Amino acid sequence: MAGPLPPVPIPGARLLFSLDPGVAHLNHGSYGAVPIGVQRAQQRLRDETEANPMRFFNRGLVDRITHARRHLASFLGADPDGTALVGNVSIGAATVLQSLRLEAGDELVDTDHGYGSFALAVEREARRTGAVRRTLSVPLTASDEEIVEIVRAGIRPGRTKLLVVDQLTSATARLLPAAAIAAVARERDVPVLVDGAHAPGMLPTPVQSIGADFWVGNLHKWGYAPRGSAALVVAPHWRRRIEPLAVSWQEEAGFPSRVEWQATLDYTAWLAAPVGVFTLRTLGLDRVRAHNAELAAYGQGVVGRALGIAPADLVDPGGPTVSMRILPLPPGVATSYPDAVALRQRIADKLNTEVNVNPWRGRGWLRLSGQVYNRAEEYDRLAERLPALLTSLS
Ligand SMILES: Cc1ncc(COP(=O)(O)O)c(C=O)c1O
Predict the structure, then answer these.
(1) CA of 29 to the centre of ligand 1 (A)
(2) Considering just the CA atoms, what is the radius of gyration of the chain in Å?
């Protein structure tokens, strides 16, 4: 049975990137890929730094960061005064966790779709403070209403000090109803941190109307920004309580400068990040989103057929612009993290194809991304060659 058709490629878009033409890069979701124009913009800023570091750091850098932040916050649909630029979502989440000042007996709640290192961060904060981590189990095919009910039943007013929930999950590539979840948590007076790592550039104005206490998102994945560009958005009632990881010279400036300024760092990624947004807008935001989502769906279909998976068993991520899709691997394959990493490496080495592989609930899952530099033939080639590679494992 035929699956979804691939989209018409966006003319010239592939040439904007410097990816190795000998490799099919079907994993934009992990580290993104930075367009050449954005790389150049960042290099010009680094050249400027090295021409006179004293001038770069001491004359106008804080204002330039403020300017970039305002631009990026408006792209995200966030309040610029409630937005701090940070290096990545892990740093944003760590900033939130340590600012909560948890005590023994407090509770941190997350879901079993959460990103692995976020789970470790929640675990460590619980260990450090004597708090308890509780993980809610959310079935892969649960409806939005069911997910909201699982969360409603899983949080406890007064006891749960933070609910951590993904906007778009990593291992399972599912869109979760973040706004409805945040509303339920608000009703019950439980603070929420939304992990929007994949949202900027993929979902339209991802912060607008979510209404979370905290939201973090990477601009360096789907936002075409240089790596090290992310935003932490904080609701007004939390802004005075958020403490930066390191105290710096902006300590007295209040939020967001005090969180953003982390002493002597390379801030050029943030200053060049608006060029990533400009590149996306030039290609056409809606056009890029539709293209990427259609291509990921095409890849899921063609590889799914090759692996003998019935179309009805292919997971629907739940939104028309979701540019990542997953496929279940045969039972017993990549069911642990080390095995998943080994399979990902084997696919890269043997098939010259970069994909993501994750274990989730006792099963291995292959994740494919779609991006403007990808072509249908790259998924076709993977579909032709992956079954034999998987057979060779057993
Ligand atoms: C859902 C999710 N959360 C968090 C992260 C961590 O992102 P970073 O390494 O940029 O902090 C990722 C990375 O892929 C992710 O997919």
Answers:
(1) 9
(2) 21
Query: Taking CB atoms and a 6 Å cutoff, what residues make up the pocket around ligand 1?
Result: 30, 88-90, 115, 118, 166, 170, 195, 197-198, 218
Closest residue (by CA) to atom 1 of ligand 1? Answer: 170
List the pLDDT tens digit at each of the 394 positions of the chain: 678 899 999 999 999 999 999 999 999 999 999 999 999 999 999 999 999 999 999 999 999 999 999 999 999 999 999 999 999 999 999 999 999 999 999 999 999 999 999 999 999 999 999 999 999 999 999 999 999 999 999 999 999 999 999 999 999 999 999 999 999 999 999 999 999 999 999 999 999 989 999 999 999 999 999 999 999 999 999 999 999 999 999 999 999 999 999 999 999 999 999 999 999 999 999 999 999 999 999 999 999 999 999 998 899 999 999 999 999 999 999 999 999 999 999 999 999 999 999 999 999 999 999 999 999 999 999 999 999 999 998 7
Expressed in angstroms and rounded, the spacing between residue 52 Cα and the centre of ligand 1 is 34
Query: E strands of 341-389, at which residues?
Result: 353-354, 356-360, 363-369
What domains can be seen in the chain, in order of their start residue? 13-33+285-393 (3.90.1150.10), 38-278 (3.40.640.10)
Q: Whose CA is nearest to atom 13 of ligand 1?
A: 30
**Can you list the pairs that 4-7 forms with residues at least 24 positions away whose Cβ atoms lie under 8 Å?**
4/294, 4/297, 4/298, 4/301, 5/294, 5/298, 6/294, 6/295, 6/298, 6/375, 6/376, 6/379, 7/290, 7/291, 7/294, 7/295, 7/298
Going by alpha carbons, the residue nearest to atom 5 of ligand 1 is 197
